[in-house]
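yo

u said u wanted the structure for the complex thing, so here. seqs first:
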Amino acid sequence: MPKIVDHDQRRMELVNATWRIIARHGMEGATMREIATEAGFANGALKPYFPTKDDLLAFAFGHVFNQTNARMAAATRGLSGLGALRAFCREILPLDENRINEARIVIPFWQKALTDESKARLHDDAMEQWRTHLLQQLHEAREAGELRAEVGDEDIAGHLMNLVLGAQITAVLSPAHYSPDQLSAQLDGYLQLLAGGTFSSPAVEKK
Amino acid sequence: MPKIVDHDQRRMELVNATWRIIARHGMEGATMREIATEAGFANGALKPYFPTKDDLLAFAFGHVFNQTNARMAAATRGLSGLGALRAFCREILPLDENRINEARIVIPFWQKALTDESKARLHDDAMEQWRTHLLQQLHEAREAGELRAEVGDEDIAGHLMNLVLGAQITAVLSPAHYSPDQLSAQLDGYLQLLAGGTFSSPAVEKK
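structre next:
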């Protein structure tokens, strides 16, 4: 009987190895050989899964996106409006080591997407899903009277998307002013602007 | 008599060529040979100025930063408070082809800075200069009674920095929802939140 290989499982092991290598040495320093070694694979064993480092990076981005979405689903359960929006954005913000490592995957992915149409489309589709969620949460917040700002929801969703993406850069490259605590306070400050000065963040959600 | 070479001039020509090549082919596709050709130089003529592509990228980032600062100085002349802050941020936002090309230089620079300490420091110093300017403008806005939000200036400066950096990504990778007009409206919407609903952007400054 042939050995049964769980291909999904092996792909995940590779992604986790890629991540650690990229976080350690950057995209340039991350060779396929090193990633294979880190994942405990023979060098040639990688090719069937990911013919090139580019394929691996695209898969790693998809993985970060899916992981973030899974955390968001858990964090927003039972919430709506601004509470849901806060929990949602906190999963994108680099507020712990795991999410800071996600930023270290996403930044090289952006760079690749600049000249790779399929990566650009993957990114745009993912970001559009998030924007749609934010618009829904803003709609709920309006209905509930939580959101009193006269600025339009489209513009607010734009602020939030730019804030959470910008934070990927500042958290990694300027941690002195964009630490987890500072980014968290900035998000709550922004929500306070939306609520017209009355939003107070639930302390229990702090993490 | 030896030929007089204006080294600063030659460096600028190289940076402009780098820019065009990176905008066209990305960092990976931008070879030193291509950049030399684009700038009208023999291949070997590049080495004395920039031994490696990394040196060239660091210089290009510095150039983008200086160009942006020069535009800011011109755009904010005679302004203070929220008016100055608006003009300042507009020079960072990718609101025209030139500034979109700047984003195309900055994104690969971030990626390099992830694992290159001297580039990370260069970036952090530059961003800290901007944050300091923003804090000064916010201080002026408070004094003038233009800024009524109860959120602290440090948090507001954080919002603005993340917004303008996030816009580098969204403008290039998701232009359908972050066009120049949309980013411009988002900035004005944010200023309206700060002003407590009363900020109206001077139409004459629209560009």
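Chain A touches chain B through 55 residues (CB under 8 Å). The helical segments of chain A are 7-29, 32-38, 53-76, 81-92, 97-113, 117-143, 153-173, 180-195.
cya
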